[in-house]
Amino acid sequence: MSAPENTFKTALKRGDQLYGCWAGFADPYPTEVLATAGFDWLVLDAEHAPNDLRTIMAQLQVLEGKPCHPVVRLPMGEAWAIKQVLDAGAQTLLIPMVDSADEARDLVRAMRYPPQGIRGSGAALARASRFSSVPDYITTANDQMCLLVQIESRAAVEALDDILAVEGVDGIFIGPSDLANDMGYLGDSDAPEVRDTIKDVLARAAASDTAACILAVDHDTALTYRDWGAQVMAVGIDVLMLAQTARAVAQKWRNG
Asked: What are phi and psi for residue 62, nearest 5 degrees?
């Protein structure tokens, strides 16, 4: 019995257009609600949302068997943190602030067992192996690991071709706001220079064997990014959707 198929990775390789949503409440209940919405994937965000190992694991549990695939974003690319979330059952990771091919290669190795990597062999007591009920987990898990690295700086853009060439990097994910910050535009991803850079990065990724991914909660902007080559798109953020809907309802009644 082998490690379960990473359906997200399979869809990437087929070239499917995939739409996802950020899950930032750090709780399994709203994440389970999101799983009924029809998204292809959900980001369980531990960089800017108050997630920890246990809340990530709880959300992985409610998403198991659902049609939307969990993508875990860690706050950093530390090997020990990667090991923990993989053992908890994650198969796809999104790592922020990757600025070089060397950093990307280190992440690939952290997600794989030897000889391809350095992942610690503790799967016997881990949820990932279904607590040793998947006897071939360690020998088959490497092929199901999926890595998305975030391009969020001028250094990352300069190193893009080298990053795209790293075996084991399945997608590059542009962070428009952080990229704009690093370019001197303080979150203004609509600045012409930033837009030109985003267009260039998406086009170069789309022309490679590595998926082009991005976040855009504005509908027209998302359509533009898709036209520029984005294959994987986050088109919503749950916290914002709740906040915006709640404010609109309250305002409607205040004005009524």
From this structure: -75, -20
Model confidence, pTM:
0.97
Has 69 been annotated as catalytic?
no
The residue annotated as part of the active site, out of 13, 48, 154, 247, is 48
Q: DSSP state, 96? A: S
Q: Judge whether 237 and 25 are in contact, CB under 8 Å.
A: no
Q: Which residues contact 118 (CB under 8 A, 6 or more apart)?
A: 79, 109, 110, 112
Residues 136-149: tens digit of each pLDDT: 999 999 999 999 99
- Report the Cα 50 to chain-centroid distance in Å: 16
Query: Smallest Cα–Cα separation from 138: which of 87, 195, 67, 63?
Result: 87
Q: What DSSP assignment string belongs to 102-167?
A: HHHHHHHHHTS-TTT------GGGSGGGTTTTSTTHHHHGGGG-EEEEEE-SHHHHHTHHHHHTST
The answer for residues whose C-beta is within 8 angstroms of residue 141's C-beta and 6 or more apart is: 3, 113, 123, 128
Distance CA 247, CA 251 (A): 6
Q: How far apart are CA 76 and CA 91, in angstroms?
A: 16
Digit-coded pLDDT (tens) for 104-127: 999 999 999 999 999 999 888 999
Tell me which residue of 80, 170, 85 sits closest to 126, measured CA to CA.
85
DSSP, res 216:
-
